[in-house]
């Protein structure tokens, strides 16, 4: 990723672009309530960052974890997905963020299905589904 790929906006610009909940989650590291984002389609396509529109996860890597949040066993191969340690709320977790715009997406846990054994537990409000990328979803 080059410097030109990075998306930087002021707090006011993010607030104007995002819904109040998306702003709270993506820009302020919040979490939406479990089972509140049940409208994710099962059609082929790609899930994009709500802030910068970067393609992050494919429908083919999505699964029902029973956690109440959209879950994936891996990001797209070319996705700008980053991780860092999160010690908030008296826990030690691995935060997942968009490396292009630093949007908070969710957390990754080591209790997912094979082939990775990982569960990328994402906030649905931090993602936008793009059915038009279905043919490119192999990423």
Describe this entry's structure for a reader:
A hairpin with a 5-residue loop joins strand 1 (46-49) and strand 2 (55-58). The mean pLDDT is 89. This protein has two helices and nine strands. By secondary structure, it is an alpha+beta fold. The longest helix has 9 residues, at 20-28. The strands form two sheets. Strands 3-4-8-7-6-5 form a six-stranded antiparallel beta sheet.
User: Roughly how much helix do the residues carry, as a percent range?
Assistant: 10-25%
Outline: globular
Main structural class: alpha+beta
The residue ranges in which pLDDT falls below 50 over 5 or more consecutive positions are: none
State the name of the first-level CATH class of one domain. Answer: Mainly Beta
- Assess the beta-strand content as a share of residues: 25-35%
Tell me the radius of gyration: 14 Å
How far the N terminus sits from the C terminus, by CA atoms, comes to 16 Å
Total helices: the number is 2
For the residues shown, what is the average pLDDT? 89
Give, in order, the helices and strands.
Answer: HHEEEEEEEEE
User: Based on DSSP secondary structure assignment, what is the total number of beta strands?
Assistant: 9
**What's the main sheet like?**
6 strands, antiparallel
- Corresponding CATH superfamily of one domain: Peptide methionine sulfoxide reductase
């Amino acid at each position: 990723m080059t410097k030109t790929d990075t998306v930087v906006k002021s707090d006011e610009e993010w607030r104007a672009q995002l819904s109040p909940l998306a702003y709270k989650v993506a820009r302020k590291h919040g979490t939406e309530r479990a089972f509140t984002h049940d409208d994710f389609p099962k059609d082929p396509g790609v899930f994009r960052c709500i802030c910068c529109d970067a393609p992050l996860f494919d429908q083919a890597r999505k699964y029902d974890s029973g956690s109440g949040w959209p879950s994936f066993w891996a990001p797209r191969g070319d996705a700008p997905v980053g991780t860092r340690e999160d010690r908030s709320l008296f826990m030690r977790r691995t935060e997942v963020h968009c490396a292009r715009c630093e949007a908070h997406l969710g957390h990754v846990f080591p209790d997912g299905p094979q082939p990775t054994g990982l569960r990328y537990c994402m906030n649905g409000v931090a993602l936008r589904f793009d059915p038009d990328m279905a043919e490119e979803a192999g990423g």
